[in-house]
Amino acid sequence: MKPSPASALLAGPLSLEVPAFLLSSLGEWLARHALRLQAAAGDPGLVLQAGTELEQLGLEMQALVHALRGTRPAAAEPVDLQAAAAQALQQWRPAWQKAGLQAELQAGPALVQSLDAGLLQHALDLMLGHALSGGRDVRLSVAALDESRQVLRLSGVGQAASEDELHWQLLRLLARARGWALERREGQHAGTVDLTLHLGHLAAEPESVEDERLPRRRLDLALRVLVLDPHEPSRVESARLLGQAGLACDCLANLDQARELLAAADPGWNALVSGIPADASGMADFAASLRERYGLRRWIELVDEEFRFDIGVPDGSRPARLGRQDLKNTLLAALAA
Fold it and tell me: E strand or H helix at 303, and its extent?
């Protein structure tokens, strides 16, 4: 990661909690670099390189924290996204070349959007840093959805750049704070994923006049969701949907990871979306521990049955059941009250 300019500090007021899993990813990243420093004690060049990377991470984190705290008024200005993407790639080129990889920008016209230039640079830096960890060549592109909303796309990212990687965790935090939608989908080529960042708030769906007198289910944004699923595609899809809805979530692959994080931190999980069956060994006890510690309010079990939508018990003692294939239409509705 590399230092950001002072303009990155000029963000608007934001308020959100840092997910516990992000801190875990940061700890792992720092531990790896500390081990590299120890192993390279006799090589001044390697020590200097590792020290520089740690210094750059510190500067990036400092700027990001200031931006998220909103210590100064927002500094929105017209920005040419195509030019900004080209500049970011130029700054990252040495790191990509050192790794023997290429990151190219798809040619296109100037696309101007009014936003904070510093936070845009943060987003580009985090996208490229995450993609670099994937170990494959990528293509960056800019596209327009309408007159006020544009998207950044990174295609061909290697699956080694997992959703647990530090840059991705930081990017999710930034996107959630700004109300930007962040998507992660399977790429056109096997073993790749495509990342899309929507730079602008999504328009709210209009309410139907015919439904005015009907009771409405509402999504409580205070829910803290644990997505616990060995099946990566549905885990990623759940994270995308929850992120778009503004819900805080942590995504883990198995019970051992969840138990470790629960023992080491205070994640506050009061909603559980699980691809592990309720009758699997240890699952009921884990749900009971969340109920005792945080007052578990929602428990959803993901199943491989098309169009399955069973509502659970309100107190979370018995899970709702949803088919993995239709999460985009059922997950948020199952979490709402």
Answer: strand 298-303
SS3 195: strand
Q: What pLDDT, in 10s, does the model give residues 189-238?
A: 888 999 999 987 543 333 333 333 333 446 777 889 999 999 988 888 89
User: Are residues 64 and 174 in contact, defined by beta-carbon separation less than 8 angstroms?
Assistant: yes
pTM of the model: 0.50
> What type of residue sits at position 337?
A
**Measuring CA to CA, which residue among 1, 125, 6 is closest to residue 66?**
6
Q: Is the separation of the CB atoms in 122 and 67 below 8 Å?
A: yes
DSSP characters for 29-72? HHHHHHHHHHHTTT-HHHHHHHHHHHHHHHHHHHHHHHHHHT-S
* pLDDT confidence tier of residue 140, bands split at 50, 70 and 90: very high
What token pair was written down for 19?
């997910």
Decide if 177 contacts 126 (C-beta within 8 A): no
Report phi then psi at 67, rounded to 5.
-65, -45
Packed helices 255-264 and 283-294: angle between N→C axes, nearest 10 degrees? 30
Residues present in the chain in total: 337
Q: How large is the C-alpha radius of gyration of the chain?
A: 21
User: What is the spatial distance between Cα 259 and Cα 267, in angstroms, rounded to a whole number?
Assistant: 11
Helix (H, G, I), strand (E, B) or coil at 298: strand
Report d(CA 63, CA 71) in Å as an integer: 11
Q: Which amino acid is at 223?
A: L
Q: How does DSSP classify residue 256?
A: H
How many CB atoms sit inside 10 A of residue 159's CB? 15
Read off the amino acid at residue 28. Answer: E
CA 170/CA 116 separation, integer angstroms: 17
Q: Do 212 and 177 touch, CB atoms closer than 8 A?
A: no
Amino acid at 189: H
User: CA–CA separation, 170 vs 64, rounded Å?
Assistant: 9
**Positive or negative, the Cα torsion across 265, 269, 274, 280?**
positive
Q: What residues have CB less than 8 Å from 177, skipping those under 6 apart?
A: 14, 16, 68
